[in-house]
Amino acid sequence: MTDHRFRCPRCGRALNYDVAMGLWWCPDPDCGTVVRQGALPEQRPSAQSGGVHSFSAPAQRDLPQDTEEEWQPHGWSTGRRILIVLVALLTTAAVLMMALSPLSWFRGVVLSVSPHSVTFVDDWGTGTMPQAIAIQNDGKGEMNWHATTDVAWLTVEPSQGTLQGGLQVVTLRADITGLAVGQHEGVCTIASEDSRNSPQIVGVLLKVERSPETRAIQSLVGDDVEVFYGEQPPYVEGPNGNEIYLVNNSLATNVSWSTLATFLEMDNTDENPYLQGERMCGTFAEMLHNNAEAVGIRTAWVSIDMVGQEIGHALNAFVTTDRGVVFVDCTGEDAGLVVSAEAEAGVCDYDKIAYVLKGREYGLISLDYAESSDYPFYEKYTKAWEDYTTDLDEFNALADEYNALVAGRRLVVGSQDAHRATSLYNELERRRVSMEMQRQLLGSCRWDSIGVVEQVELYW
Question: Which helix (H) or strand (E) holds 120?
Fold first, then answer.
């Protein structure tokens, strides 16, 4: 608002009034005088003013030196005022932006990860559902990122990528194979060299309620089985009192059946003789365990109790990647375990696959003839041996009859005895061929059972 009644005491121009501030100010940019309302001089009529109230501008030297009624910014122009206002506005905007988003003032890429913690839970030893993580670029520009984990059981896929904007979902998976029951912790780290707030950390918790080994063994052996991890078995090697001591390898893993079979063939544990009271089954199981772990194959030392027997038996267990749980008995030469129609105990290979099922007889099959580690295969194999034994008895009976018929005699062609001898000979040849095929499938050595399984303990 401009009022011609009041003029600038410095330049004489009509003053403008600012209602909000309660100040009169000079519109001349070269003057810039500001005067409070109550500080204006008393008004006097003037002939030159045509009746309009005005006052004469006093000389600058006539103004009191200590007056506080007038403020003069000494040559401030409108351009400078505009600049001050712009600076104030920009400062205010920057403060607001930083208050609303501490990272919004960065013009580069901004790495964002959600969530920052995940939990896997395995209740039955069957594995866990995968978890998802969202990686975002909340800034501008291209962001290259990569993800890593600090434990072997935790994997992330994909492990690297590029983001211009938006988000990318990665998958975390937990492998519970070989993990003990309990809680396991890990970390997934997502990093980007392009981002100032790198890296971002995702904490991972895995709860294992029941290991795959336990579940697989229980489904194979029965519910009455105990599985221990990282514990020494409370058993001794024999009457000498030496404790069983297992040496585990933290880097050992489960291997395929073919890899396990190759190891067993090369290992010489079974070549040691069985010595009652000195080198017994517990010692053989201890040796095989430590040898396997040394070459990176996860192995369990196994103790089984037999129904009605005070002394149990020891062997080993493996979890193969293609055949599941496999029991192995490498107890060395013990003639008491061999039942064979032809072979002597010394010619048998003592690397044996064991068949363990609660309430059923403890079974053994030579490694080379164990086509499966499932107990039903042992039952079929045992039945085949029984059939072979029956066929062998019948073959021997026919052979005795044939020998009695022809021994010391010259049979006349066409006679009844000659016809009978020819018939017996042909039957023996047919049976011989059939039995040779059976032996090819069964092997030379059959292993006797040492009892009925009552309880099983495994020490990984």
Answer: strand 117-122
